[in-house]
Amino acid sequence: GAVVSQHPSWVICKSGTSVKIECRSLDFQATTMFWYRQFPKQSLMLMATSNEGSKATYEQGVEKDKFLINHASLTLSTLTVTSAHPEDSSFYICSARYRNTEAFFGQGTRLTVV
Amino acid sequence: AQKVTQAQTEISVVEKEDVTLDCVYETRDTTYYLFWYKQPPSGELVFLIRRNSFDEQNEISGRYSWNFQKSTSSFNFTITASQVVDSAVYFCALSEGFTGGGNKLTFGTGTQLKVEL
Question: What number is the average pLDDT over the span B67-71?
């Protein structure tokens, strides 16, 4: 099956700093990637959808200037949490698909902002 | 708008009991996909099943079985002879459209299953 790798698996950062999370498709070209966020003991909510070479489409209520998404290649998308604060602490998980096929999830990144 | 409801927040069973996790969905699309995922404490999402809206046939995979009923917009998941390793949060999810389920997913709120000895 298709493999999506997310890095890092967990990260701790200081309040006010930025952190970058990578999502890579290892054995297919990801024309579309999705970023989800999951707060503790809650469901997963879509943050944004990115198509290779285009600007990401953000869901309502998600700050695009705070959560920068770059999908510059067919195998890599990055999510940068800028000026992170404790309330940004969450589990972030990506999924990727090739054209009109099913999407596959990465293993997720647990972000803790202290 | 699409919506997924998992009314059971938490279920506790004793090992070897059968347990059914409920999932009710709402969508205006005639083409859609339904999923179940398992999320253990480590956090990763473990894919269990994908079912498209044109296939109402029930499915069995080992101790797992799924009952899809379009008439009631439900896609329930049953674990037979539950085991401690089944303890996890289970999510039902919906994807609208023709993309093999590759469109954005709307997740239910999840059901925490605890299987005790």
Answer: 95
